[in-house]
Amino acid sequence: MPANTIADYIDAQPLAVQRRLRAVRKEVKKVVPKAEEGISYGIPAFSVNGKRFFYLAAWKEHIAVYPVTAGSEAFKKAVQRYRGTKSALHFRHDAPLPVAVMQRIIRVCLKRYAVKQQTRPSTK
Question: Whole-angstrom Cα distance, residue 96 to residue 34?
Answer without folding.
Answer: 27
